[in-house]
Amino acid sequence: MDDRATVLEKLARLNFGEDEIVIMDDPSYNDLNIYMRELALRIAKATAADKKQLVFWYYAGHGIQDNTVSMVLNQSEGKHIYPIELQLRALSKCGHAYVVGLLDCCRQKVKTRGNDSEAFEEGENIILAFGCPPSKDTPAESTLAEDFFGFLENSADAAGNIALPGNLNFFHTKDRRNETLIKVS
Question: Would you say residue 78 has pLDDT above 80?
Answer without folding.
Answer: no
